[in-house]
Amino acid sequence: MGVTLAVPGAQAAPFLSRHARPATPAAPIVSGSDCVFDVSVLPVLGGTVARLLPGTNGDVVGALLDNGAELVMPPGLAALARGLKPGAKLSVRGLWSASEHLIRAFALAGTPPLCAIPVPEMVTAAPPVSAQGVIERLLHDGDGAVNGALLKDGTVLRVPAAGVKSSDLTPGRAVYASGAGYRTSWGLLVRVDILGPSRAQAMRVSDEPPIPPGAAAGSPAYDELHP
After folding, report:
1. CA-wise closest residue to 137 among 146, 145, 125, 124
2. Stretch(es) of the chain classified as CATH 2.40.50
3. pLDDT at residue 225 in the model
4. HEC states along the chain?
5. Region annotation Disordered: residue ranges (predicted)?
């Protein structure tokens, strides 16, 4: 017996056609498919890339399109799209959030669609960096949760869960952020540990527990080692 899959929001197709139009890839997609699930039931969405967005390791995990949409990709998917750069056309199989103006990509559109091989996300060591500027827009993960911000100068802040509810993370507000990060081809990336309206008012927002202070130098416990 066949199974009919209903795609939620099918009646919203006219909205999708205006705001997240299908696009032809800028260059041929690598042949073959590593998709575990059948993504052919998902709509083809996309547009022209306005800027690429780095993730916590400095690799591309998303893009802003010229139609104003934010596109979020799983780790490794962007590397499979040849010629991906600002001005290139990008089309994916994915889901559309009208409320967040967000596309969650599951695969590059093609015949067959191309999925990234699932890999665990590894957070690598990075040098200390800081940034200060005005927030242009908030950024999201694939579930639609805020996980960062784009500053007007192109800097990308990736903010842990402890910091996303901060009132400082508001479009139009000036913000100071510091942590670890990279200067990538797509702009400065800051994995935020400290956030605030200014350097003097910034507070720690890391999800990692603070390292407790050790014993005072010269005290009996100073030379003790604890597992």
Report:
1. 146
2. 10-108, 128-204
3. 58
4. CCCCCCCCCHHHHHHHHHHCCCCCCCCCCCCCCCCCCCHHHCCEEEEEEEEEEECCCCCEEEEEECCCCEEECCCCCHHHCCCCCCCCEEEEEEEEECCCCEEEEEEECCCCCECCCCCCCCCCCCCEEEEEEEEEEEEECCCCCEEEEEECCCCEEECCCCCCCCCCCCCCCEEEEEEEEEEECCEEEEEEEEEECCCCCCEECCCCCCCCCCCCCCCCCCCCCCC
5. 201-227
pLDDT digits (tens, 9 = 90+) for 81-131: 989 999 999 999 999 999 999 999 999 998 889 998 766 666 667 899 999
Model confidence pLDDT, tens digit, residues 160-209: 988 888 889 999 999 999 999 999 998 999 999 999 999 999 999 977 76
Diameter of the chain measured on Cα atoms: 78
> Phi and psi dihedrals of 80, rounded to 5?
-85, -10
Whether 23 and 48 have beta carbons less than 8 Å apart is answered as yes
pTM higher than 0.85: no
Q: Pull the structure tokens for residue 185.
A: 């081809």
For residue 57, how many C-alpha atoms fall within 13 Å in the half-sphere facing its CB?
A: 11
Find out whether 207 and 191 touch, Cβ atoms under 8 Å: no
The CATH topology of domain 128-204 is OB fold (Dihydrolipoamide Acetyltransferase, E2P) (2.40.50)
CATH T-level fold of 10-108? OB fold (Dihydrolipoamide Acetyltransferase, E2P) (2.40.50)
